[in-house]
Design a protein that fits this description.
Blueprint: E1 7-12, E2 28-29, E3 32-33, H1 34-42, E4 48-52, E5 64-66, H2 74-85, E6 90-95, H3 103-110, E7 119-124, E8 127-136, H4 139-148, H5 154-159, E9 163-167, H6 170-173, H7 182-187
Parallel strand pairs: 1-4, 1-6, 4-5, 7-9
Antiparallel strand pairs: 2-3, 6-8, 7-8
Helix pairs in contact: 2-4
């Protein structure tokens, strides 16, 4: 079941990025947009890729782009929107702010797909990462119900599902660094030497 024929990639690129001042997906690392790094890491593992964003600039990537079905409701709504448009049971979901992510790290998720597990997420340094995770498409039903109730907390929503958590070893955890502020962006220069390992 972990064949790429049964997995859709979903990239969440709908955030307003208010803390960093621009669309994070188009920020550059080694002269390549964050979202392009993410696509390249994800592509060997999935059948199709969906970008969830209201920003039509992403159409230049020639991938399926869908708008948020419920606006201003955060990543929970983004995941719901992606799952709504997915044609596969299993979905690899990533936010667009993890440009160091690589295929090897993502394989930790795809290799652990189980029929009766709704969500498979990574954990690093004691912190779970529901924005680097696998989701069953039927999770959209629970997520829609929560969104209709005004619930926007992704971790709360994940806890309503059957979850499996994969703890990363120290060799891989550095690839899950997320970039949310200008300070993080400046610090990223110290990680540039890691990008040669991205396709491990």
């Amino acid at each position: 079941m972990n064949s790429n024929k049964h997995i859709t990639g979903i990239i969440l690129a709908g955030g307003k990025s208010s803390r960093i001042g621009s669309d994070k997906g188009f920020l550059l690392l080694n002269e390549k947009a964050f979202i392009q790094h993410i696509i390249e890491a994800m592509q060997p593992l999935v059948k199709d890729i969906i970008i969830v964003s209201n920003n039509s600039d992403y159409d230049i990537l020639n991938l399926k782009r869908v708008n948020d079905l419920i606006e201003n409701s955060g990543p929970l709504a983004g995941i719901y929107s992606g799952l709504h448009h997915s044609n596969t049971e299993n979905n690899l979901v990533l936010s667009c702010d993890v440009p160091l992510i690589n295929t090897e790290t993502l394989k930790k998720l795809t290799a652990n797909i189980e029929e009766h597990i709704d969500v498979i997420q990574l954990e690093s340094k004691g912190k779970t990462m529901p924005l680097i995770a696998m989701y069953k498409t039927h999770c959209k039903n629970k997520f829609f119900e929560l969104l209709q109730q005004g619930e926007k907390r992704l971790r709360f929503a994940v806890k309503q599902c059957k979850v499996k958590t994969i703890t990363l070893n120290t060799e891989l955890e550095k690839f899950t660094v997320n970039i949310n502020t200008q300070h993080h962006l400046r610090d990223l220069s110290g990680f540039e030497n890691l990008t040669g390992l991205k396709q491990q």
